[in-house]
Amino acid sequence: MITFKKTIVIMPVKDLSTVNHLIDDLFKWPTTEEEWGQYALTDEQIQFFNENGFLAGVKLLNETQIERLRNELAELVDAHHPGHGLFYEFHSNESTSSDSILFHALGAWRITNGFHDVLWNPAFVMAASQLLGNKAVRFWHDQLFYKPAKKGGVVAWHQDYSYWTRTTPLAHLTCWCGLDDSTVENGCLQYVPGSHKWGLLDKPELAGDLMGIMDYLTPEQQAEFKPIPVETKAGEGIFHHGLTLHGSGENKSDRPRRAFVVNVFADGVKSDADAELLKGVPIINKGEQMQGQFFPLLFNPAEVFAAV
């Protein structure tokens, strides 16, 4: 009897980092000043960000866009996804506790159309530019977070820039966007208002002890450590400064808490290391400007508004 071994061929996925513009029809790039105006933050929102180091409740996605990204995330959590090799980092469970799960990955923008195109979401780039001082916005990297129901792990208190000092100067901005309603029960983000004025702190283990940051704070900072939970609706974004202390607790609810993050900086930021900035990305030598295929310019207000 002759038997035949079945061979499964996994076709490679196109690296979408080679496309530095909208691919799909999930978002529409505005062509008039009026269309751009609908995405503009108010002076009050910008003032709140500058004073507190974060801004919540910014509507970024509609129901169709949310569902599309949920579906893509469901595919990407599979370590056998054909585009897996394009991730900069992939942690099926980054939690240091055996009783909890924290899925965390970087590089989804290279793999699926939806997570690629959120970089060029007009609502996102407009707000990002304003919060960076009306400057041109350049992409740094993205992240996916997934806390499953009942056993979702924590993200320890930290400052984002403490992990990014291989780039300089500090002109960075983070946008976290929930794909589910985010509540205290399912592990919403929490912030320490005004902590972006404390300067750069040592970095703790990201998925380790939730309160590990306390070991790095002065007595005065410990006294000012008064976190507030920030609950959001699905599709709403929270922007925060690169030095703002933030973290999130366990997901104890009966529903998942899914989110993606887009990290950017003002155009002109330079490499501060003669080493790999992201896994698999060609080295940008120390002192050279961050740019190129993997760090595309997302939005330049001077060019955009000159063209409308």
Q: Can you tell me the residue ranges where pLDDT is under 50 for at least 5 consecutive residues?
A: 6-10
Label the overall shape: globular
CATH topology: Jelly Rolls
Class per helix and strand makeup = alpha+beta
Instruction: Classify the beta-strand content into a percent band.
Output: 15-25%
Number of strands: 14
CATH class membership: Mainly Beta
CATH superfamily: q2cbj1_9rhob like domain
| Total domain modules | 1
What is the CA-atom radius of gyration, in angstroms?
Answer: 20 Å
Separation of the first and last Cα atoms: 72 Å
Overall helicity: 10-25%
Number of helical segments with 4 or more residues: 7
Mean pLDDT: 94
N-to-C series of helices and strands: HHEHEEHHEEEEEHEEEEEEH
CATH architecture: Sandwich
Specify the biggest β-sheet: 8 strands, antiparallel
GO molecular function: dioxygenase activity
Organism: Danxiaibacter flavus
Cofactor: Fe(2+)
Keywords: Dioxygenase, Oxidoreductase
Defining traits:
308 residues; alpha+beta; Jelly Rolls; 8-stranded antiparallel sheet; 4-stranded antiparallel sheet; 14 strands; globular
Task: Describe what this molecule looks like in 3D.
There is one protein chain. The longest helix is centred in the N-terminal third of the chain and has 14 residues, at 63-76. This protein is globular. The chain has one domain (45-307): Sandwich (Jelly Rolls). It has helices spanning 33-37, 43-52, 63-76, 113-117, 122-131, 219-224, 301-307, and strands at 54-59, 89-91, 103-106, 137-147, 155-158, 167-168, 172-178, 189-191, 228-229, 236-241, 246-248, 257-266, 270-271, 297-299. It starts with 32 loop residues before the first helix and ends with a helix. The chain has 7 helices and 14 strands. Strands 1, 2, 3, 4, 7, 10, 12 and 14 form an 8-stranded antiparallel beta sheet that branches. It has a 4-stranded antiparallel beta sheet with strand order 5-11-8-9, with no helix packed on it. The chain has a two-stranded antiparallel sheet with strand order 6-13. It is of the alpha+beta class. Pfam families: PhyH. InterPro entries: Phytyl_CoA_dOase-like. Keywords: Dioxygenase, Oxidoreductase.
